[in-house]
Amino acid sequence: MPEQTKPEPANTPETESPDARPRRRQARGERRIAQLLDAAANVFCTTGYTAASTNAIAREAGVSPGTLYQFFPNKEAIAIELGDRLLHQWRDSHGAALVAANLDLPLEQLLEAVLDPLITFNEENPAFAVLMHGPDIPGRITQEFDTVHAGLLERIEEILTGYLPDTPAAEVHRVSTMTFAVFKAGLDLILAHEGAERAAYTKELKTIMFRYLQPLFCETDASIHTP
């Protein structure tokens, strides 16, 4: 009789390829990390960074403190990882807000296109403001925030230079710095309110910025050109 061949075993948990198991474990680990970071964001928003504890974060995530310590050694490490992720998303928001297509819009429409995604990001990620402004935030996070802010200020200055090619650089820098400061102050007020009041403060911020910047242009419907 001809020799019978045995069928290949299916990839059951006992027989699956060795490299499949690490990938599954890695995926589970990434989901757990995301769960812990979401919990940390909620706790930081509720209690502030200083008063938050790893026990509170573990409780919010529905896991034991021991499980948390498998991924993070302390609260600072959690804050740094959360800050890194939020900063990455924040940079994406900057990119979406300051794309070249928006820079040919009239000033009023430009402000809508630039401010709306930045405000929406902060509304959807309240932990961003906590980590940006809170006391005792790990130094690495504050340094990264300073880098992001410096980049945004530089971009604002480039845009205004395109509008005002004959204006002295020192004056353009001063206007850019004031514009950014107005945005940050207005954003704090927006985030401190909800519902109709939040919408009203958003409108006020856009009005203030329009009235401040509009005299710099030859006419209200002047277009911004990239430098």
UniProtKB/TrEMBL annotation:
Q: Which InterPro entries match?
A: DNA-bd_HTH_TetR-type_CS (IPR023772), Homeodomain-like_sf (IPR009057), HTH-type_TetR-like_transc_reg (IPR050109), HTH_TetR (IPR001647), TetR_C_22 (IPR041674)
Record-annotated HTH tetR-type domain positions? 30-90
Give the source's domain of life in one word: Bacteria
Keyword Acetylation part of the UniProt annotation: no
Q: Which UniProt keywords apply?
A: DNA-binding, Transcription, Transcription regulation
Region feature (Disordered): 1-28
Specify the DNA-binding region ranges: 53-72
Which Pfam families does its entry note?
TetR_C_22, TetR_N
Under the heading PANTHER family, the entry gives: HTH-TYPE TRANSCRIPTIONAL REGULATOR BETI, HTH-TYPE TRANSCRIPTIONAL REGULATOR RUTR
Q: What name does this protein carry? A: TetR/AcrR family transcriptional regulator
- Organism field: Streptomyces xantholiticus
